[in-house]
Amino acid sequence: MKGLLMVFTGDGKGKTTAALGTALRAWGHGMRVCVVQFIKARETGEIKAARRLDGFEIIPMGRGFVGNRGRPGREHVEAARKALEKVREKMASGQYQLIILDEINNALSLGLVRGEELMDLLRERPDDLHMILTGRGAPPEILEMADLVTEMRDVKHPYQEGIGAQEGIDY
Ligand code: ATP
Ligand code: MG
Q: Which of 59, 61, 79, 90 is the most buried (most CB within 10 A)?
């Protein structure tokens, strides 16, 4: 087998859920999966589900909403540094067949993670490890390196009609 680098990006809904769908598929084949979440801090349906699945880990390592005005706070930068360290540790353990860096693209564009640091980590990826990167605005060098890139395009979203986030659908 060949480990693939996959990217789900774009402004439409479905990036994280596509990654989780792939994770479920892999897990079904007995693969061990680890999802490290950047920025996100909240308990979600997928975290509750993963607790009941042996070999399917989701680790939320963010500090929640960052905003996009001005420099993000130090606590966010520090959290992202720890999350990247966690990915490195999981990768080095050799225990996983799929590792997902959820919202890493957002962490990059917010300046929480340096592009070079992520590129270095991706170059160290073992040949037989699948990896998925999610989040809006994946930079060109990541798209270049990836084996698979899908861009979710926003056609319609209930938020635009003033309909709020729905349990089980949005979180
Ligand atoms: P999901 O986790 O549902 O797969 P996503 O990973 O593609 O969504 P994110 O940018 O991570 O999207 O944002 C997560 C939250 O933002 C979700 O609650 C989602 O419904 C919402 N969202 C995603 N796309 C849009 C959009 N185009 N307009 C408004 N809200 C959106
Ligand atoms: Mg997402």
A: 79
Instruction: Give the tens place of pLDDT for each residue, 17-34.
Output: 999 999 999 999 999 999
Assigned domain for 86 exists: yes
Query: Rounded to the nearest whole angstrom, what is the distance from the C-alpha of residue 22 to the centroid of ligand 1?
Result: 17
15 alpha carbon – ligand 1 mean position (Å): 8
- Range(s) of the domain holding residue 69: 5-153
Q: How far is the CA of 115 from the centre of ligand 2 (A)?
A: 19
| Ligand 1 atom 20 nearest Cα | 170
Is the residue at 158 inside a domain?
A: no
Structural domain count of the chain: 1
- Tell me the whole-structure pTM to 2 decimals: 0.96
